[in-house]
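Could you join me in thinking about how sequence relates to backbone shape in a protein? Would you write everything just below, so we can both look at the same thing?
***
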Amino acid sequence: MRFHLTIKAATVSDKEAWDNYVLSHSNGIAYQLFAWKEAVEKAYKFETCYLMARDNRRIKGVLPLIIFKLPFSKKKLISLPYCDAGGPLADDTLIESALFQKSLEIAQSAKVSIRSTRPFSGLPSETTINQQKARMLLNLPDGSDLLLAGLKAKVRSQVKKAHKNGLTSTLGFLDLLSDFYSVFSENMRDLGSPVHSRKWIHAILKCYGNRAHVAVVYTSSGEPAAAGMILCHPRVVSIPWASSLRRFNKLNPNMMLYWTFLKFAADNGYPAFDFGRSTPDEGTFRFKRQWGAYPEYLHWADFKQARQLSVPGSSISRNRRLAESFIMHLPVCAATALGTAVRKYIPL
């Protein structure tokens, strides 16, 4: 262990140094930036503990943690809620282990949930890999012309069909928030899933600034038909939320939405695009794979006092199915009101 290594909770004065470390790290992702902490604090009021390891003045590793507290239950530390992965970044395995050990000390008897794109230091990868959750990655060529040419003929045809159907797309920022949220909230209702609050989406955009982009696909009559958001890291563009409305499915708005983001990423020199997590062989998995994306299984595990507790599964309980059915049958405004009241307490 480094003799001068110290680990402390980062403060706002450490934001620039934290972000520089994440942005320069080969395994960094946009969710690990300081902006996620700021958005959680601003929109959902949870406390955070962003651990930073230093050797003298130099940052050697980071571990972002949200102190997640549900009503009438014990707290737990999550890295990170509301997204696919967080977890530690470090210069080497010893520093990563030190960060992890510090998180257990802070948690005391509470659970520490780590979601990572990589195996955990000191543990066999097969003990933490989540076979039910894979992020779908696509390596991007130098420019959208090469990207389009490399797509399968069927996918190119679907992208072109969206244009022929009169759809158009716009890439923007806070100016598209209202249209984004109208699509997002209706789609979540249709899926039977509680929707994030508009305040959360606004906080993400404000905190990420020019590293966040919103796209909206419109019909020929100007109706929003699909919408999504991307968060950018120099090594990978991630898409945390994307939605399309079922009543416009025949127009292929989802194909145009993803093409808009992929074109932006390729033309701006990003080397990879992360389509987000899917369960293998389900519909979203196949949709992402048709673009040429390949699965990279995530490593999710819960720990307590250095003992691995479990790898979260993906079984769906009867109560969850009933809740989904209930939400699906609500008017959008009622489903949105319910969702925004409970969504902050659902860490996935």
Remarks:
- The chain has a mean pLDDT of 92.
- The first strand starts at residue 5 and ends at 9.
- The chain has two domains: 5-130+298-314, 141-270.
